[in-house]
Write a structure and sequence with these properties.
This protein has 266 residues and is α/β, with parallel strands linked by helices. The longest helix has 21 residues.
């Protein structure tokens, strides 16, 4: 029997690792799908026709779900791929994995509040790799930390002004985290991304939803709540490389605010 091409073998290993290590415990559906693909030479051969950075499991899975693939056994999913391969390829080649998880604000909030307090100024935020900019709104969400006493939330009148009930971001802490007593004030926010997404573009929002794994309904609800808030007051997002754009964007921040530039690893 002839050996599989090296590139195809690596692609199969990539999907097998995803199915055995990354997906279990978070998405049994994705675990089954990627293990099925890993053992499917024909499907691996098709995936291997794409550029290397387009072969990642998350991108293929999200593209299929964006087009309507429902959770189910691998045989059903494979049939969907067979029927929609041209469209799946088009989405894979034109999109990227730009998960925009508002929940990350819970980890950023203590530092942002501390900076605002130390500077005695409101904040101006620039996020590098902003996607649709949902993480630029830490002042518009609610928070519950695990110390049992510190809860910071928008008041009901703020919720009305900002477009509806905010998602409540729950966070487990470790060590002496300086939990804030109140939300910092953010007076300006901007983002830089190679391909920013628009919260008022239906296809971009549908893509963000497709990037949420099938069984994670709580994340989907949180995403939709965050999108509804951000749609009322979209941030300034610019397409480009941070090395080319950061200085010019930072120069637009108001002088009376503490400027914070941040990036988080997906």
């Amino acid at each position: 029997m002839a050996a599989a091409p090296i590139s195809a073998s690596r692609t199969a290993s990539w999907y097998r690792h995803f199915g055995l290590v990354e997906a279990p415990g978070s998405s049994p559906c994705y675990a089954e799908w990627t293990l099925g693909i890993a053992d499917d030479p024909q499907m691996i051969s098709r995936i291997d026709q794409w550029p290397h950075d387009k072969r990642q499991p998350n991108l293929l899975l999200a593209a299929a779900r964006f087009l309507g693939a429902g959770a189910g056994p691998y045989a059903q999913f494979r049939g969907f791929l067979e029927d929609h391969w041209t469209a799946v390829s088009r989405i894979v080649l034109s999109r990227s994995t730009q998960t925009n998880e508002a929940g990350r604000c819970a980890a950023l909030l203590p530092s942002l509040a501390a900076i605002s307090a130390a500077e005695r100024k409101p904040l101006a935020l620039i996020e590098v790799g902003a996607s649709a900019g949902l993480v630029l709104f830490p002042d518009r969400y609610g928070y519950e930390f695990d110390d049992g006493t510190t809860v910071t939330r928008l008041s009901p009148d703020q919720a009305v002004r900002t477009g509806g009930e905010p998602p409540v971001l729950r966070c487990v802490t470790s060590g002496p985290v300086p939990l804030p007593a109140e939300l910092p004030q953010v007076v300006w926010r901007a983002g830089i991304d190679l391909n920013p997404l628009d919260v008022n573009n239906a296809d971009d929002v549908a893509w963000l939803e497709a990037l949420v794994w099938p069984e994670q309904d709580f994340r989907l609800m949180r995403l939709r709540q965050a999108v509804a808030i951000v749609q009322q007051d979209p941030p300034f997002l610019i397409a480009g490389d941070l090395n080319d754009q950061l200085v010019d964007v930072a120069a637009q921040a108001p002088a009376g605010a503490a400027l914070v530039v941040f990036h988080h690893v997906p």
